[in-house]
Amino acid sequence: MASHNESIIREPLMTGKDITYAKITNDILLPVENKPNKAWWIGFTVSSLGALLWVVSISYTFWFGLGAWGLNKTVGWAWDITGFVWWVGIGHAGTLISAVLLIFRQNWRNSINRSAEAMTIFAVICAATYIVAHMGRPWLFYFTLPLPNQYGSLWVNWNSALMMDVFAISTYFSVSLLFWYTGLLPDIASIRDRATGLRRRIYSILSFGWTGSLKTWQRFETVSLILAGISTPLVLSVHTIVSFDFATSLVPGWHTTIFPPYFVAGAIFSGFAMVQTLLLVTRKVLGLENYITMFHVESMNKIILLTGSIVGVAYITEFFIAWYSGVEYEQYAFINRATGPYWWAYWSMMSCNVISPQLFWSKTLRTSIKFSWFLSIIVNIGMWFERFVIIVTSLHRDYIPSSWAMFYPTWVDVSVFIGSIGLFFTMFLLFVRVLPSVAIAEVKLLLKTSSEQAKKKLINENHLDPAEVEYYKESLTKFDSIDTADYEKV
Amino acid sequence: MSKTKIILGLFDDPDDMMKGIDNLQKNSIPIYDIYTPMPIHGIEDKMGVKDSRLGYAAFCFGCLGITVITSILYYTLVYDWPMNVGGKPSFAMPNFIPFMFEWTILFTAFGMTITFFAATHLFPGRAPRVMDLRATDDRFVIAVNAKGNIPHEDITNLLKQAGAVEVKHNERKYVSYE
């Protein structure tokens, strides 16, 4: 049955008093059904200016060609691929939350999966724009597809990791979009049934005629589970293939077998940091503190701590293997990273990605909203530097010292990067206005089992082990949305 | 004769709705359908709804995907224009695995979801056949066909006994959107 009792020692996934199914719908649809507040308008203005900068700088690149960027003969790949890998990595947290946590039946995913998946889609859009932009002749992008042509037909080179990337990224984007939109249908129907006039017509078309009948839900759940099952290996394959772009080459510093797992861990790491950056602000501005609780924040911080440590081990392993292999070029590439002209990039990466997440071993820090947000920004910066270090420092000193060079970005490089962040936030801010930012139907499932009020009712019934109740009460002290004074008398 | 076409039992709690289903079934009253704002586990068993076969569809689409891409790979790089890359075999299986994998996933996902939409009659612009507007918000609705199930008062009482907050006797099956 829907409402068997959950163990009391599990922390609540939803807080607040007198929560009903209707209140959940009202709370979550508040930003969708009302005019936006000042904070939203400020954010939207700033980020759409950023998006405008992106339009200008990308148009400039298309018009004048890749010479607009700071690339040179030695460093032929720089901020474009750095930006691409950074954005794709950020996207990975959404799929991890929606797919992997679904398979493991982690119910805390229910309140964060919708916005994390939206973030995945927008991040992959940003990543894809880099790919198209760095082609030089972006109008010929269809050359990457196996289409019959007048040259023979001369087919695409299926042996290339870049081809694998085309298929991995496009499959990832389209399957993520499908998963996200299928999950949205019941919630769009909720908006539709409360709206009137033109709004109702629009949401009616978007809802695909969803009614929530028995058979629909049954099939919906099957589809969700299978999509989760296939998205899990998909998300791992995508960043594995992104790492092949480097690992299958012969460049010292790139040609390492550790790249696939190291990139996947890094992707999850940076993705969760971006989820924190977005959600800590969203929960405050949209008033979702009861749904995205301190438990969610702390759980995500724990994942950041774990994946940050995996990434740290990977960095050290790379160094060890460079030494152990006895290959001079490999050894030089790594010594050059840490002590060469780009030492500052390397040590920014090390301190942001390896050292600072270790602070999350402290419970006070990982349950502090302000500190979590600050650290998520640090991790975002660190992960950008990681890709910069891998790409630019491996390339800038090649086998012939006469061709050694440095990379200096032009204003176009910088604008494309800042602009893509603007584009990302513009899309996210529009999303929270027109679609529910929390999966309404899935959160309703938690009301009778995992909510604070359901647990309080259990305590009041007095059939529980007092030691377990004490443990539970103690775990509530970290929540910013619970008044612990309520528990003194029970 | 009464003009009532459909009787709706509206519950505000899924457990009460389960009781409602039991009450009706004990009295051999067939249930037309059940509308809920969220998936409720256990109704399928009660209502004798068979397991979804979408998993089989997904498997078939996956097989189709891998077959299609393997054919493309073989035709282009082995049959039509084999390339000599350092004398290595042109059927370079390890290089092809990522493509085979991605296309299996792509076909599985889209094939299965489109099958789901087709089987459930979901498509953009379809007029929603909603019986009660709150069924997507906070009401768990049991719909009973009024025709042939009489007396209506008894059905109302059975639903009320289970804890229905409201019982509607609707003359139209669906809430119109026109």
Q: Would you write up a description of this structure?
A:
The complex is a heterodimer of chains A (490) and B (178). Chain A is mostly helical and 490 residues long. In chain A, 68% of the residues lie in helices and 0% in strands. Chain A is built from 18 helices and no strands. In chain A, helix 8 (259-285) packs antiparallel against helix 9 (294-325). Chain A is globular. The mean pLDDT of chain B is 88. The longest helix of chain B is centred in the middle third of the chain and has 27 residues, at 54-80. Chain B has two domains: 6-37 and 137-170, Alpha-Beta Plaits (2-Layer Sandwich); 54-119, no CATH class. A four-stranded antiparallel sheet of chain B has the order 2-3-1-4. The chains are: A mainly alpha (490), B alpha+beta (178). At the A-B interface, helix 1, helix 5, helix 6, helix 7 and helix 15 of A face helix 1, strand 2, helix 2, helix 3 and helix 4 of B.
Features:
heterodimer, A: 490 residues, mainly alpha, Formate dehydrogenase/DMSO reductase fold, 2 domains, 18 helices, 68% helix, 0% strand, globular, B: alpha+beta, Alpha-Beta Plaits, four-stranded antiparallel β-sheet, 5 helices, elongated
